[in-house]
From TrEMBL:
This is HID1 domain containing b. It comes from Cyprinus carpio (Common carp). It holds the Pfam family Hid1. The keyword Nuclease does not apply. It comes from the Eukaryota. Coiled coil: none annotated. Keywords: Membrane, Transmembrane, Transmembrane helix. One of its GO terms (cellular component) is Golgi trans cisterna.
Length: 768
């Protein structure tokens, strides 16, 4: 009955606010207190009792009242944070303010006229004993400071450590939050007792914090180049809780165990409050780490204390990542008996950021990964089964820039995991190639922009691959067969780059790992006509037009090239980046931004004999083999800033102002790196033919034995330098990750739907 009265009274207050035509003064506390004092409503109640239409109506018709409501709610949060929420009534008031602001903020952010509202200077609330210059501050800073204080408020979000209600506000403000870190792990050895009430309060605060950060969702991609001011302040030294908050978020994520003791169906019998907190902590963490322009040393008032604390923990963090990433892929005898986490996409983003941001020893996160090839298997599983293609490709591209990654791929692949790929016996390198081949040949047409990334990864590791299996070798040669088709080469101004990448793979293996790669050498000999056809590719107008006739007879570029595969499950790899559940009618999806070309994604380094790398100028890279003159002619095919991937693909496919010419074909055909392969064929083909005739061989195993003991020492051209294309952060990928990250968070917040039906501009929401 009491809850019904609370809902009725709150609804009356909302109606009063929406119907008032005159501004309500901020001093009228009796009116404003109706929205949070003695209000006992859940977040779902709050969203139901404050309709979107009424928020917009107040924003348009009584903007001063909406501004005052926000100001008074923040003021109440600040006052209670200063007092320490010493009683249950204060805590309930804080929760009501949090839920009300979470409901209102998206509708303020969606209106450009309100964009600077929270960053306008207002009288400082709370204590006012500071100097006159400090008596005013932006409302956003007051809100973020209050949220941070409340996240370490004894008896509300953390254990009290013996505090009594008689303790004064000064004791609360002097709290050392490093002693109240939420979970054991980085920087904290003790594991506080689990308290569901505290977890629930933390979750409410983190939802509000994410809502504050989400202002950039309401800006067009062209306007998101500047740092997010909410995140900048939250991560700055002005927030005294920045370091303990970061470690609390990280530790909660790493310590979360969805399986527990492994009792079947335990997740159906018991609620999992910690799971919700872990998801929100992870989302807050990846958004905070997006702020790359912030001086990371500012997050600690005493940076010297970080080194000893973080160094041993970085080496262990990948273990937690592996454990959690493995959870969605677990196979159990009893269906649905084990809880599966839903935040694997956010986890992959965190994994990416840990790799990308920790590049300098002793925090070289990638260094510790190479002793655990399990993570590579997991990423390839996600790549082939779940549809998280883009993020997984980015991770593998980053890893492939490290020499040790290629070396470690030579380890035998003995653990068999469920994947819809060809059966083979070989190494992790073979697994990588087989999965990539599967994605290219049976994936979705929208994955075509990823082909050069996939091949670049193989190029980067190829100088270190000691022995490819016959299956992997045949997969590479099949890719060359389809990519070197005259029709495929002539139908796009950039398709010939794929041939250059594959030829570079073959050259690297022949020059640097010939001894153990007899399977690939045998495959090259068997498919030698491919290389002769490339060397003799026709360049006259008649031949070009004849080849293009095949395109006009086909409805799909992708399907026409890869007719080899006719798999009824061939959409398994198609990108559905934010899908959290199986596709159902009415499911929401968020659009992806177009991905930059590979030359925009990477910088080329030359590997010296001692293993050191030397960064090359762009003009020196091997990519120049594929004709820089053609690059200038196809700039209109590059994605513009903020362009959706689907829109970009349509624009490229419908472009009619480009056509292949004999001069264009000659410009890159003359640069095809065929010398090494042709020399290999010139030496080995006669030898193989002779031994077959002399011994009457019909079994390929005997030929493989011959090739296994063969040598080309002194017969091949001078080895070319090893070139590695390392991932290089750029504006295009930053926008892609920002869009991907916020798209995930947008769709994950369904109960309550924080951003649903608001005018988001960073991406498009599509109803499937």
């Amino acid at each position: 009955m009491g809850n019904s009265d609370s809902k009725l009274n709150f609804r009356k207050a909302v109606i009063q606010l929406t119907t008032k035509t005159q501004p309500v003064e901020a001093s009228e506390d009796v009116f404003w207190d109706q929205f949070w004092t003695d209000v006992n409503l859940t977040a779902q109640d709050m969203f139901a009792l404050v309709p979107a239409a009424e928020i917009r109506a107040v924003r348009e018709e009584s903007p001063s009242n909406l501004a005052t409501l926000c100001y008074k709610a923040v003021e109440r949060l600040v006052l209670n944070a200063d007092s320490g929420c010493v009683c249950e009534r204060d805590r309930q008031t804080v929760l009501s303010c949090i839920r009300l602001l979470t409901r209102i903020l998206p509708y303020i952010f969606e209106d450009p006229d309100w964009r600077g509202f929270f960053w306008s200077t207002v009288p400082k609330v709370g204590k006012t004993d500071e100097s006159d210059d400090e008596c005013t501050r932006p409302l956003a800073e007051s809100l973020l400071t209050a949220i941070s204080d409340l996240l370490f408020c004894p008896d509300f979000t953390v254990e009290s450590h013996g505090r009594t209600s008689a303790d004064g506000p000064s004791d609360i403000q002097s709290i050392d939050s490093c002693e109240f870190i939420w979970e054991a792990g980085v920087g904290f050895a003790q594991s506080p007792p689990l308290n569901h009430t505290h977890d629930s309060s933390r979750a409410e605060l983190l939802k509000l914090l994410l809502t504050c950060f989400s202002e950039e969702m309401y800006q067009s991609p062209s306007d998101t180049h500047t740092p997010n001011p909410w995140v900048s302040f939250f991560c700055s030294r002005e927030n005294r809780h920045a370091l303990p908050l970061f470690t609390s978020l990280l530790n909660v994520v790493c310590a979360y165990d969805p399986v527990g003791y492994g009792i079947p169906y335990n997740h159906l019998m018991f609620s999992d409050q910690r799971g919700m907190l872990a998801e929100l902590a992870l989302q807050t963490l990846i958004v905070s780490l997006e702020q790359e322009l912030v001086d990371h040393s500012n997050t600690s008032p005493n940076p010297s204390t970080n080194t000893d604390t973080l160094s041993p923990c970085i080496s262990e963090m990948h273990v937690f990542c592996i454990r959690l990433l493995n959870n969605p892929l677990l196979q159990t005898y009893l269906p649905h008996s084990c809880k599966k986490i839903q935040f694997h996409q956010e986890l992959l983003v965190l994994f990416w950021k840990l790799c990308d941001l920790n590049k300098v020893p002793p925090y070289h996160f990638i260094f510790y990964l190479f002793s655990y090839l399990t993570i590579i298997i997991l990423i390839l599983q996600f790549l082939s089964r779940v549809g998280l293609v883009h993020i997984c490709v980015f991770i593998l591209l980053l890893l492939s820039g490290e020499r040790n990654f290629g070396v470690r791929l030579n380890k035998p692949y003995s653990v068999r995991v469920p994947m819809d790929i060809s059966v083979f016996a070989g190494t992790h390198a073979d697994l990588l190639i087989v999965v990539f081949h599967k994605i290219i040949t049976s994936g979705h047409q929208r994955l075509q922009p990823l082909y050069d990334c996939l091949l670049t990864i193989i190029v980067n590791v190829s100088p270190y691959l000691k022995s490819l299996s016959m299956v992997a070798a045949n997969k590479l040669l099949h890719l060359l067969e389809v990519f070197s088709s005259p029709w495929f080469l002539f139908c796009s101004p950039v398709n010939h780059h794929l041939v250059f990448f594959l030829l570079e793979v073959f050259n690297n293996i022949i020059q640097y790992q010939f001894d153990g790669n007899f399977n690939l050498v045998y495959g090259i000999i068997r498919k030698r006509n491919l290389f002769h056809q490339l060397a003799n590719l026709p360049t006259d107008v008649s031949s070009i037009q004849k080849a293009l006739q095949r395109k006009r007879r086909s409805n799909s570029t992708h399907n026409a090239v890869f007719m080899e595969t006719n798999n009824p499950c061939n959409t398994a790899c198609s990108e559905a980046p934010y899908k959290t559940t199986p596709v159902q009618t009415g499911t929401l999806n968020a659009s992806l931004k177009a991905m930059p070309r590979i030359d925009k994604l990477t910088e080329t380094s030359q590997v010296s004999e001692d293993g050191a790398t030397l960064l090359l100028q762009q003009s020196d890279s091997t990519h120049s083999q594929s004709d820089h003159s053609s690059e200038t002619r196809v700039r209109d095919t590059e994605p513009t800033s903020g362009e959706d991937e689907e829109v970009h693909q349509k624009r490229v496919s419908s472009s009619s102002d480009w056509a292949p010419t004999p001069d264009w074909v000659l410009s890159w055909k003359s640069k095809l790196p065929l010398q090494t392969i042709m020399r290999l064929l010139q030496v080995l083909v006669p030898q193989v033919e002779k031994i077959c005739i002399d011994k009457g061989l019909t079994d390929e195993s005997e030929i493989l034995k011959f090739l296994q003991h063969g040598t080309l020492v002194g017969l091949l051209p001078v080895p070319h330098p090893i070139l590695i294309r390392k991932y290089q952060a750029n504006e295009g990928t930053a926008l892609w990750f920002r869009t991907y990250m916020w798209g995930i968070i947008y769709l994950r917040k369904e109960d309550p739907p924080v951003w649903y039906d608001t005018d988001v501009k960073l991406f498009e929401i599509q109803r499937i």
